[in-house]
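Please decode residue identities from the backbone states below.
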């Protein structure tokens, strides 16, 4: 066989280690389940084709594929993986894939969609490039379903992001759609989705030549589709008008607007005018397509799992990730439209303490930093109001705006005022020819809000004394019907809930769901505590007695296969745990069968969640902890899933299937997460398997180990503090990078433990079973702890002191401590410093504290060191005095510096020394009679100005006797030369001596260059004051 014949897939050696598909994460001790699966399939393909001819390779692949569906899937996925990881072999592998595929590439299309939705951000750059290449080939081949993959690809293009990788993706997908235009025109939904996507992206692409070139390609693409296929674009609905408004000044779109307004028939005979578009509600799929899967997952998580009042860290994370750049201003409109039009919570969520939609929207409004972005965000919020029709539109689309205004009235009247003002002014200004329609739409919205009891009355909102007179007058003029109230304008009383059927079979939320908690956006939560302490995990609701309700799984049973339905019914009827465990094992076995329909996992998870509600109530940990009691506690039927998971290989398809089942369970019962952690900690069968939790975390909707771990530990903290303490050692040991980098988990723990549990954790630390701090992050964690409650801070310091970490590691925290605000940290640090020998760095930090009559910290520790280490302290103070006296000082500018950290100045050192002198006055301590101190005081006195000589005259007088008795010190002629001409007794200066401070400092620099160098080196740890 010639070399050319054996090239391609047959030339790939199965011995070579394949490239990583996903980015290797340093803190992941193993590969992901998906990657293991793909690489195993690839090794099957390469082992069959290595070293044989092309024909033999094709015959071997075809023969293997014919054995059955699992073998067909393995070969398809193996070839797919080779395409992603071996660009040189991609063309050949694609041809082989086209030959062996028996399902029209369906397996490959599903895997591409899975990777795009779940793993795209973790893909290696090479694999991303190859994925685009593969989609281009699928489109060229006209593979059925390729349009769906293209739409998923477009969803990954983030709005408000002009980074190189995002621009590359936007341009790559646009090139595919442009090149294969005839294929695009065959799919109406793809036309509409592509127009919606690129109309939105045009706004972001401006500035550089590259972005301008891409923008022009996007303009040409959108204009051609809008003009040729306007009726397909019409399915977008009213949000098409919103996007066209944003690009209206681009010449091509100006001409389009003229046709839309003055000559609609030119676009399509069926198009009657702009009102037709505006009265059509935009489908959810368009609103959702402008959020990446990661954004969508995080938003859905916040609106379904995060409790109101505990949202700040999630909002901060989201803002850091997506809203921190100037270009991201445009993304806020996409987010607000998505929340209003797509996130429609169930009755159960609406009546719970889960973070409401209006709070997230209020937060997004407060993050707008430009007037244009703020106006666009407000338009996005009110957009469904303008042409609202109760028959076509949902109350859920207009509810967030009215609730943002209602709940912002007390804490943020300015937000309410600006929204009410916008609502009034948009009526005549949105589109003057349709002013009557807009007024009717807004009126219908308000009327529907009152009818559905979202708010009982609008008068308390429209005629509130907190609003200025002009706005109240405008509201009375525009909406007189809603400004008169049957009762005085006081806070709206809670009404009985009114259930309403929505188009998504979910009912609306009445006002009572929100009135119990005063509105507070994330920026203001820090002020909620009267002491000014910032708290996140604080108040715990009193747990009510649980009333056992009969389990009803009837709605789910009809959706299950007959055999699975019978087993679930047996599980329901099971009288004892052992019988239930046997049935549960049978269910797991059936799930793992080859012909099991994975679409039934969600229904099965719903059944299991209902049947085993009792598993998630009460304490998990046995009262008395022994090996026997722990093993007995993990014998619950639901834990059979965990046990089976532990017995499997991670690259096994069954392993992935069980993870999918757990992921479905996790969505319906979040407590399953910490129950898995407990099982992995307590069960003998799970010994050494704690890393399975990471696979579980990646399989969940969160898809992130850190977020998942923190959420599960938070749920554990709220349910069972004993279990939290029991899990703590293993969690810190197994996941050090997730637990030691920040104080998040530590805060959860110290917020709820008692003194006995604290002592238990301290013992774990000292026995080597637990490490809660490490040198590289301990300082940041202790700084974070300064905002915690008093007992929490003392706990954190106790746990820190149990570790063998040098105190010098955290001594810079002194620069953050204020004597009125941080007494806990100051007292703990003071007691620890008294046990240490002072180093120069310690003394420097202690002296850098600002002097205040009520702050005794510095004087206390200096006095203690005087008693124990007087000679060492004297040397350090001498060194610091000389260093800080050797360079010009701009003391006033330092004091007014914007830096919050304390700066060490010469005056500070002298003030602290003077306080120490006063404290030692009536003692026998002779600290100030030591030679190093006296030499340093002479050195400073010789060069300081008269104001400082007067201010510290008592301090400097201590050095006079030393100078008189040793006018010629034997040790250093240079020191004598510096000190003798500057005696306070000889206050009359030589004729050429100048009062000007600058001259005096410059002469000192000329005669003393070496200390200048030492000063720069010595102060580098804290930052040079001279800077």
């Amino acid at each position: 066989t010639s070399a050319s014949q054996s090239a391609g897939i047959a030339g790939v050696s199965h011995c070579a280690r394949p490239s990583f598909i996903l980015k290797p994460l340093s803190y992941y001790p193993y590969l992901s389940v998906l990657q293991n699966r793909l690489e195993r399939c690839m090794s099957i393909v390469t082992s069959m084709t290595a070293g044989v001819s092309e024909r033999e390779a094709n015959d071997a692949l075809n023969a293997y594929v014919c054995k059955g569906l699992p073998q067909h899937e393995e070969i398809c996925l193996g070839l797919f993986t080779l395409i992603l990881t071996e660009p040189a072999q991609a063309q050949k592998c694609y041809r082989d894939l086209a030959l062996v595929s028996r399902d029209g590439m369906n397996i490959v299309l599903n895997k591409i969609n899975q990777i795009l939705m779940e793993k795209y951000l973790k893909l290696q750059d090479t694999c991303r490039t190859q994925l685009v290449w593969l989609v281009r080939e699928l489109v060229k081949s006209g593979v059925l379903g390729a349009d769906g993959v293209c739409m998923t690809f477009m969803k990954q293009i983030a709005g408000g992001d002009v980074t190189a990788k995002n621009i590359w993706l936007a341009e790559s997908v646009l090139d595919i759609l442009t090149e294969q235009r005839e294929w695009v025109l065959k799919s109406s939904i793809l036309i509409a989705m592509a127009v919606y996507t690129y109309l939105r992206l045009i706004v972001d692409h401006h500035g550089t030549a590259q972005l301008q070139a891409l923008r022009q390609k996007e303009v040409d693409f959108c204009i051609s589709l809008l003009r040729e296929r306007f009726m397909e674009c019409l399915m977008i609905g009213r949000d098409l008008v919103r996007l066209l408004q944003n690009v209206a000044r681009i010449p091509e779109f100006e001409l389009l607007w003229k046709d839309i307004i003055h000559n609609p028939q030119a676009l399509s005979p069926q198009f009657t005018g702009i009102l037709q578009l505006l009265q059509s509600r935009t489908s959810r799929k368009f609103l959702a397509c402008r959020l990446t899967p990661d954004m969508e997952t995080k938003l859905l998580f916040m609106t379904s799992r995060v409790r109101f009042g505990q949202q700040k860290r999630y909002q901060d994370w989201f803002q850091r990730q997506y809203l921190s750049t100037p270009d991201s201003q445009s993304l806020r409109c996409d987010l607000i439209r998505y929340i209003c039009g797509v996130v429609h919570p169930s009755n159960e969520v609406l009546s719970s303490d889960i973070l409401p939609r209006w709070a997230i929207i209020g937060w997004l409004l407060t993050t707008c930093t430009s007037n244009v972005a703020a106006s666009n965000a407000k338009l996005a919020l009110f957009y469904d109001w303008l042409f609202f029709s109760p028959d076509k539109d949902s109350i859920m689309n207009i509810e967030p705006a009215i609730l943002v205004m209602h709940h912002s009235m007390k804490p943020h009247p300015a937000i309410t005022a600006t929204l009410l003002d916008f609502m009034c002014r948009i009526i005549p200004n949105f589109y003057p020819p349709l002013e009557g329609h807009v007024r009717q739409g807004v009126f219908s919205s308000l009327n529907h809000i009152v009818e559905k009891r979202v708010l009982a009355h609008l008068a308390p909102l429209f005629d509130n004394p907190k609003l200025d007179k002009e706005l109240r007058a405008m509201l009375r003029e525009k909406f007189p019907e809603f400004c008169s109230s049957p009762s005085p304008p006081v806070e709206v009383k809670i009404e009985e809930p009114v259930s309403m059927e929505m188009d998504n079979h979910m009912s609306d939320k009445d006002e009572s769901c929100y009135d119990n908690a005063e509105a507070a956006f994330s920026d203001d939560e820090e002020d909620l505590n009267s002491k000014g302490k910032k708290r996140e995990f604080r108040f715990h609701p009193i747990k009510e007695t649980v009333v056992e309700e009969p389990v009803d799984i009837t709605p789910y049973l009809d959706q299950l296969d007959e055999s699975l339905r019978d087993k679930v019914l047996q599980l329901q009827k099971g009288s004892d745990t052992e019988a239930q465990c046997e049935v549960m094992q049978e269910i797991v076995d059936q799930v793992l069968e080859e012909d099991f329909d994975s679409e039934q996992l969600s229904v099965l998870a719903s059944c299991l969640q209902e049947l085993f509600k009792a598993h998630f109530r009460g304490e998990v940990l046995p009262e008395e902890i022994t090996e026997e009691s722990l093993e007995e506690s993990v014998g619950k039927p639901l834990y059979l899933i965990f046990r089976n998971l532990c017995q499997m290989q991670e690259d096994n398809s069954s392993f992935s299937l069980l993870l999918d089942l757990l992921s479905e369970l996790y969505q319906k019962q979040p407590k399953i997460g910490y129950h898995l952690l407990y099982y992995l900690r307590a069960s003998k069968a799970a010994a050494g398997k704690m890393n399975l939790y990471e696979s579980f975390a990646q399989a969940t909707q969160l898809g992130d180990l850190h977020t998942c771990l923190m959420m599960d530990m938070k749920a554990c903290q709220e349910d069972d503090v004993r279990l939290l303490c029991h899990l703590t050692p293993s969690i810190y040991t197994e996941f050090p990078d997730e637990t030691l980098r920040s104080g998040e988990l530590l805060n959860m723990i110290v917020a709820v433990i008692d003194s006995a549990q604290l002592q238990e954790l301290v013992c774990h630390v000292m026995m080597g079973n637990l490490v809660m701090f490490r040198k590289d992050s301990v300082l940041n964690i202790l700084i974070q702890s300064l905002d915690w409650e008093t007992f929490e801070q003392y706990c954190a310091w106790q746990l820190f002191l149990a570790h063998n970490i040098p105190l010098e590691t955290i001594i810079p925290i002194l620069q953050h401590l204020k004597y009125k605000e941080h007494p806990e940290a100051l007292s703990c640090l003071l007691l620890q410093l008294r046990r240490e020998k002072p180093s120069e760095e310690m003394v420097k930090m202690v002296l850098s504290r600002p002097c205040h009559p009520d702050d005794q910290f510095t004087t206390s520790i200096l006095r203690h060191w005087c008693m124990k280490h007087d000679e060492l302290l004297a040397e350090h103070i001498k060194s610091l005095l000389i260093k800080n006296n050797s360079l010009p000082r701009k003391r006033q500018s330092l004091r007014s510096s914007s830096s919050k950290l304390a700066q060490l100045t010469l005056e500070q050192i002298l003030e602290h020394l003077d306080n120490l002198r006063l404290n030692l006055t009536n003692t026998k301590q002779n600290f100030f009679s030591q030679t190093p101190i006296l030499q340093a005081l002479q050195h400073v006195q010789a060069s300081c100005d008269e104001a400082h000589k007067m201010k510290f005259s008592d301090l400097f007088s201590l050095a006079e006797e030393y100078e008189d008795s040793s006018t010629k010190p034997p040790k250093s002629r240079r020191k004598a030369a510096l000190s003798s001409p500057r005696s306070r007794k000889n206050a009359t200066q030589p004729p050429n001596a100048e009062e000007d401070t600058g001259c005096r400092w410059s002469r000192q620099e000329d005669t003393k260059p070496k200390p200048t160098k030492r000063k720069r080196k010595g102060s580098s740890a804290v930052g040079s004051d001279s800077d």
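Observation: The chain is about 60% helix and 0% strand.
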